[in-house]
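Notes from hallway chat w/ T.B., transcribed later so I don't forget. T.B. wanted the structure written out for a chain they're using in a teaching module, and asked if we could keep both sequence and structure tokens in one place. Agreed to drop them here.
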Amino acid sequence: MLTPSTAVHLPDRRPVFGVARPAGRIFPERRGTLDPVEHRYLGDLLEAAGGRGAVGRAEAPSNENTYARMTAELLDTLAEPLSPVNRMVLAYALPDPAIKELAGCSIADLCSGDPVVFSVSGQGAGAPFTALRILSATHDESALNGGACLIFDQRPGPLTDLLPGAAAGADSAVLLHTASGGRPTPFLWDEEAADPSAALAEVAALFPADHLVLGPELAAATGPVREGPGEVRPAPASLPCTGLWHVAASLWDHPGPLLLAEIDPVAGRLHAVGFGPGDGPDR
């Protein structure tokens, strides 16, 4: 039995915050060519990280779907403008190789509320779950502005070899943001998971849900038979970070509880978030 030492049951610690329906978009492929400055910078980075032969990988085509560009286009397509936010967490498996464009600064300029922007990475698909834990720890019901998280996937590029499993089949961005009328988020989990199947069974028992959405790593590790109530929905393997949240958006109108889970196979940890019952489309 796992000891939920790092599980967070928010009612015991602070008011539960609500999350609005995830807003996501998949972008058409846009490729470019690295200029000499970009090539040298990325080559030096890869050589330091990967040793001999790494410089050549910096010759891979650049990805013009930068994190800032995807954010700008996603925000432009929202049904309603994003409310002012005071903190924004960027979550991704690999850094954006667009070295001439500081994603955090550019994205802060796109958002009202003068948000503080910082990033979570190095955890594979666990990064968005950590971002939600950060938003919960900094949540303040008395604050006028809320918090938000942007999740990114990118097609293979110059930095793919730093974490091969992080390369996506498409460029994608998903926005999560706090909202007073959003789905409550009473369950956040981050635990070691030596046995993914047993860890998933425990989480599913702690937070029974009508729908259980599994990330591709967890779906592969647990196999076709999974314990727990509710319908199991696997996320697409082509979107290792954002896929879970695209599926969650498609289930948002369902009034019952929703549980999302994924593992970081490198660290051997299971991440999960449970969204409480909603009231239908308005949630």
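Follow-up for T.B.: Helices lie at 36-50, 67-76, 103-110, 127-137, 196-206, 216-222, 243-250. Might be a good example for the class.
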